[in-house]
Write a structure and sequence with these properties.
183 residues; alpha+beta; HIT family, subunit A; five-stranded antiparallel β-sheet; two-stranded antiparallel ribbon; 6 helices; 7 strands; 27% helix; 16% strand
Length: 183
Amino acid sequence: MSDAPEVVDGAVGIPDAYQRLWVPHRMAYISSNHTGPNAGGGEGECPFCEAPKRSDEEALIVHRGEHAYVLLNLFPYNSGHLLVCPYRHVPLYDEATTEEAAEIAALTQTAMRVLREDARCDGFNIGMNQGVIAGAGVAAHLHQHVVPRWAADANFFPIIGATKALPVLLGDTWASLKSAWPA
């Protein structure tokens, strides 16, 4: 018996019980060494300070409020993964003003309603990672995650397998959620 890999379906490999999900778009995140565009930490480099300066479509902004706004996560855990951010560059929830915290809460509730109606999700993961040590990818700017979940989604496969299959393109998700957002 040879130690050479077996050729299966035109590719080198040994058959096993695992299916492969090829998601090359994730290389942008992997190549960034998980630091994202905010590696320098300066306010001018903050993606959440820069996003509101762009068009809604370019920045994937679903809704703009008075103190906070909602946009799609560029590196989503699930299709429809939204972020609710204050416009002001502030790192921690307890540093948000009363008005900012109230609008973040209200926009989070609206995001849940829109996702439940538009994406027909079964549940949500909602939360904030405060500081680098807590897992915040952009620790310098407060943001709340609103992640829709479905009964049949892959659950924590991204954590274990470092892969996530997303069935809908970001642009299509943005257009759908933007049009579903109440006026």
